[in-house]
Amino acid sequence: MRTPIFQIDAFTTRRFAGNPAAVMPMDSFPPDAVLQAIAAENNLSETAFLVREGSDYRLRWFTPNVEVPLCGHATLASAAVVMERLEPGRNAVVFHSASGPLTVKRSDAGYVMNFPARPSELVSLPPGLAEALGVVPVEVFSNAFNYLALLDSVQTLRTLAPDMAALARMDRPGVIATVPGDGTYDFVSRYFAPTKGIPEDPVTGAAHCMLAPYWAQRLGKTEFRAFQASPRGGEIICRLAGDRVELEGSCVFYLEGTADI
Length: 261
What we know:
Layout: E1 2-10, E2 19-26, H1 32-42, E3 46-53, E4 56-62, E5 67-68, H2 72-86, E6 92-97, E7 100-107, E8 110-116, E9 121-123, H3 129-133, E10 139-142, E11 146-150, H4 154-158, H5 164-168, E12 174-180, E13 187-193, E14 198-201, H6 205-219, E15 223-228, E16 234-241, E17 244-249, E18 251-260
């Protein structure tokens, strides 16, 4: 089987920044083992697989190791493929996914996604987390998806060098580290998910589904300009709307071709 493949840098306006994702439109999904093998071969933080369903699309996301229930940057990249290559001029698309229907629309900044919010609650410092991060968090919040660790400064966040093997032993799939912004941004973050095969994810939409309600409570506002301070870096505009989060960003096409499966 031959199928189109696109590689796109998401949450950025320039190539070689943001978070790269592969997007592969298909007529139907092959067996899960094949999808997982393709994602491992692509060796990006996420590969998105698209199958058309009427006027909408079915969307699935795989890291090199596992299928995940939600992925922001690969959804943004998938929307760019639909609106710029598969159906040029289209202004909105609905993706049906493990996290329900996800709507993406064109915007002045690129595209805006509507995702479920992921609230969290304050917890005691989990055993092993401070040792894994290499710093003691100011406070820790948790939900079923991630731990969120508030750190004491942007400098601490940027110089963080976690023990990935120790993080992989934590009882959550990922750990978000975050701090207040410095004026340009409302908050800054990094995201680590070694159990998913992603030691540090460059820019993580799903993490901002947890960050947005957290910072809304701390800052008393519902719209944020956020920066993920990975080596590649990326910007996200976040808006909290009840139990949903809008994530807005841009995409840049890097590669277009055909894969033999």
